[in-house]
Design goal:
- Five copies of one chain form a homopentamer.
- Chain A is of the alpha/beta class.
- Chain A has eleven helices and ten strands.
- Chain A has an eight-stranded parallel barrel, surrounded by seven helices. In chain A, strands 4-5 form a two-stranded antiparallel sheet.
- Chains in contact: A-B, A-E, B-C, C-D, D-E.
- The interface between A and B is large, with 38 and 33 residues.
Chain lengths: ~260, ~260, ~260, ~260, ~260
């Protein structure tokens, strides 16, 4: 039930690769469309965890990096109030070797209640089997005007704590001060930044990560900013210097 | 199945701290955002119970005060007819050490039926495990024009009794006479006032509590009027004098 | 599985007291708001059954009169197509000592299907535990223009028979002839009139009951016309003379 | 799992009597409103099966004719897209002595999916207990313009075959040729005509039945055209001559 | 859990015959309306699998060809956002002798979540019983403008991989290059083309199949283009030459 397995110096970097279901292969190129490439990258670049849906885990996971199994998801083809239902049992996640389950909650959605209830059950099942429960908390739906507004991000963080998540994955607010409040709101739940689409430049991205760390977060879950990078291994090394060795952006870039 | 554990002189004061999920951290400041602060306050100020969601209970509850575990909830981000689904199993609440479960029913909501059914099941599960069942009964939704109208508050109280709640948490009507009818309507179910947002002044708040007690209620569940107070411990002492020692507002304030 | 426990001379009078949930305490006065008063009345006036929701049964039922436990219900605060979901398990009803379960089906409601299914399951569970299943059948919803029209009342009665109810509680059509058809449509299912709101005068009410009996019904479930009466015990005696002793309205009134 | 019990010379006539739930007692007169009359008629006139809802079966079925228990149904009071949910468990149908379960599927309804799923489960449960599964397949809902159009009737028949029904009950298309296609589409599933409301004349009705048989069907499920007849037993004898002895309409009428 | 049983030279041709439920018998003629004809064709022409709904499998399947049991489906009579619910248990599919289950997911439908969840459960149940799980993935609903657009087809393919399908059945994009991307997106999940309605000419159809194979797919699921052909056995031989012997369209046609 703890996140320790995913941490080094109390920090952690998760390699996220659930975009195939969430966005479709439009996020991929000829190389990173292959889950084997991602699995190899996760292992060789010493990520602290790799995030797969069940299908990828069953066909490509090799045990060299702790596994976070995303047990719900939806395609981006569906419109209307977002809802992502469980598509993998917690028991199956455990058999595959997952050390944590991941679950997305769209707070603010008209279907929020379904996801709160489902996460509640899944968290208990995961803990019984010794796995951590990580909540992807995304404020979304008609009622949400700005999902990176400081009070919205802090609310997302707190929701994870209240529901019993061991860690929450949330978006960055854009500045250290307001994100510190989100981290504080998350209490003993670890905070990981959701790094989102590829940033305009490496420095832009790294400054975000630095801000998140300065605000007290544990780390980040990163996908496109690594595997869409022309040299993913180098970017992974930069991130390790920044996050695990706690260096400045400038020093981190000297790899 | 009884509320005795939560009572002293047949009165009780519960420290409510489920606002993190219901309203977000916007209710909090740097101090009270920390559940450990609340847990300490509950214990040192001798509250008769502390109300947590599962996540807070798992990470912060230390057994020094009887625990009421709120097993449902929703964020305030969702619009439309209110619905709060179960996010913690009764069995898990029991493992954590809860002596009562709390459950919110939005009577009047288009989704009322789901919550009546869910509470019915939860009440039976809780009693089987020796825990009390406390119903937060809030008339809400399109059909409810004024949720503190005397006949609405009395209806809320009665609904709890009919459904088998050991105690109901309801809003104050604003005057002793009409609240007495609500208390009478609740029969053998204990009545706790929901104290709501911080009152304009301490005296205003305490007069409400006094009215509630004069009407025959058992006590109150209080959150913001204590932990948003500049001196929460003092306010807790004032409340004990008012509620447990049954003093007047003026005497209670002489702490 | 039989109604015999509730009958005397093949007739029966049930004291209905589920109005607290269905209408709220607005139906009550200082005396009859107390379930203990109703329990005492049911016993001392020798009613053939008393109808409670789970909460009242758990806190006030004393075994002196056979218990009908209403296992579903809704508040009158909700608008739209009516739906009442199960809020008490059949097993729990049995533990409390119920000899029959009661269940309301709103035929004609857009949610009719949920209630037909739920009653179907509950009827089987009740029979397995040796309890009778009584169906409150109320045609209601957008599609129902007049719920006391003869063909509608007969349809309600027949629905109960088809679904396996041991007894049906239906409204009076207003005349003996048409109600006789409803009773015939109910076949071997016993028919109880739902007596509804307090009638303009005692005689009006008793003539309705007399009509119902002349039409072949088994009896009635009565609430407000007894406990809103200035002398409930006397009214109960009048009803016994009318229903059990099968006298005329005029003779029945000579108590 | 076979229909053999319901057949004689590979033909069968089922006496349908689920109209009390589906249409209400408006279909009945003083005699046929009584299920005992129908049970007696079924036995004395040697029908090959009698169709009851659970309530009638429990109170009136005497074992003299094989029982088809209709396990779902709805009232005609509900408007909107049709949905009939299960109101009798398959296990209970078996205990009562049913040799087949009947289930209505409204194909084309917005709720079609619920009924396909429910029938799928029920068919498996029935087969496990050695009972046949008969599907009443009625194209209905906004999307259906003409439920006796040849291609619609053939689709209904085929749906039953695909879903695993042992027999399908469908409407007549009006001519032998097009109904032959429906029968062919049903493959090894037996086809029974749903005879519907009382026909303008006996000959009209019998010509329909003759057409259905000439098209290769197994028989019919008949209700109103028998028990609304002034001499139901004679009509039953006529039908036996037509269906089981395979005579012409004219010869069949010479009873 | 593997597709090997369905492959020859790592290629496979499945004979699809679930059109009876999906489209109705309008797709059939006097010969191919008979499932026995299809079963015989599948066996004599050495297809690598035959696709049936439960009802056909129970009544016509003879074990001479591996069985893919389609466990969900819907009629084409229903309008609105598509939804196909499970109508056959995985356990029953296994008893009947299926070597794989088939399940349709309408991605982009407002009901997508129900099908993702249901497929997730079914896939696990199938694997536990040693059966493969094949996903028919059809982008459909208001939100889908063009279901053969390259990015949509690739998304469909990827969705199957992410969800744990052993094989996906998807539509052809119309050109080799874009379909190659779909195949790549499917990773280790086998790709079968859904061949759809009868093509204008044999050559047109075969060129599509050739394109699909050149793009790296495993084969196709074919129905109407075989059994609506005037000589289904010959067409089956042509397909074997094209797909299994990997010949050109022109050579394949020299049978």
């Amino acid at each position: 039930m703890s996140m320790k397995l995913f941490l080094e110096n109390n920090r952690g970097i998760l390699l996220a690769y659930d975009q195939g279901l969430e966005h479709g292969p439009t996020d991929f190129n000829d190389r990173n469309v292959d889950p084997a490439f991602i699995m190899e990258l996760a292992a060789s670049a010493k990520f602290h965890g790799v995030v797969f849906q069940k299908g990828l885990a069953e066909k490509y996971y090799n045990g060299r990096v702790p596994l976070v199994l995303k047990v719900n998801g939806k395609t981006s083809l569906v419109k209307g109030e977002p809802l992502a239902r469980q598509n993998c049992s917690v028991e199956r996640a455990h058999e595959i070797g997952a050390k944590a389950i991941g679950y997305t909650i769209y707070v603010g959605s008209a279907h929020e209640g379904i996801m709160l209830e489902e996460f509640g059950r899944i968290q208990e099942e995961a803990h019984k089997l010794g796995m951590a429960a990580i909540a992807w908390i995304y404020p979304r739906g008609e009622a949400i005007k700005n999902d990176t507004a400081p009070e919205i991000v802090a609310y997302a963080a707190r929701t994870g704590l209240e529901l019993g998540a061991d860690a929450v994955k949330i978006k960055y607010t854009g500045d250290v001060e307001s994100f510190r409040w989100a981290v504080k709101s998350a209490g003993k739940a670890k905070v990981f930044m959701s790094s989102g689409p590829k940033a305009p430049s490496e420095v832009d991205f790294l400054r975000q990560v630095r801000g998140v760390l300065d605000a007290g977060a544990t780390g980040l879950a990163v996908g496109r900013n690594v595997w869409q990078n022309s040299d993913p291994s180098r970017m992974a090394r930069v991130l390790r210097r920044l996050v695990i060795e706690d260096r400045s952006v400038e020093e981190a870039l000297k790899v």
